[in-house]
Amino acid sequence: MEKIISNLNTLPLFMLMSKKLTKSKSNLLKLIAAASMLIDHIGYLYFPNRVLFRIVGRIAFPIFAFQVAAGFKFTSNPKRYLKRLFIFALVSQIPFSLMTGDPYELNVIATFFFAAVALFFIQKRWYFLVIIPLAISYFVPMDYGIYGVLSILIFYLSFDMPLLQLIGFCILTWFEVHLIGWPVQFYSIISVVLILLIRMLPVEFELRLNKYFFYWFYPVHMLLLVVIGKIF
After folding, report:
1. Mind listing the pLDDT tens digit for each residue in 153-168?
2. How far apart are CA 115 and CA 118, in angstroms?
């Protein structure tokens, strides 16, 4: 398998798709995901019958899932990374519950946390323990649930094989759509194509962002949308 992948990566198209995702390109993806998430939540709260908002919003999750996989892969301190996700999952829970009206469902950063726990076990080669975060994400209500955790695992395990990421995510999303019966989720595949396209950009540029910006953006934007909705 490794030999086949190695041979494929020597082909011009595969070489282009496998280009390193620079920090600036990664930040551009995060901005796109943040804008998509904001549009999605505006539609969720204020325009529930306008499906276009939810379609645009499907772009956000896979990009953030990819960033979690990348963040864990390149972090020098996995335990600190886990701690950061855990803290922001706690910080985000009240705004998320206020927005959804469901006090029992966990927010998406909690999903990221359990995915990162699974990655930590994989990194340590404690493979038998991976079933724990998978089971929790399946049985405990949380945003994207086990679909979200498995998405991050796919992005992580095929990180240097972008085409395999796309294929794996398409298959997983097909199963998810048929299980939940919500065809709109198919549009999330666009984001994986977008990751590929931005990875393949022939130009380099400088785009710097504070690494905590997106951690804070998630709870703050939900809280502001809820407050605006109460006022108006």
Report:
1. 999 999 888 888 999 9
2. 5
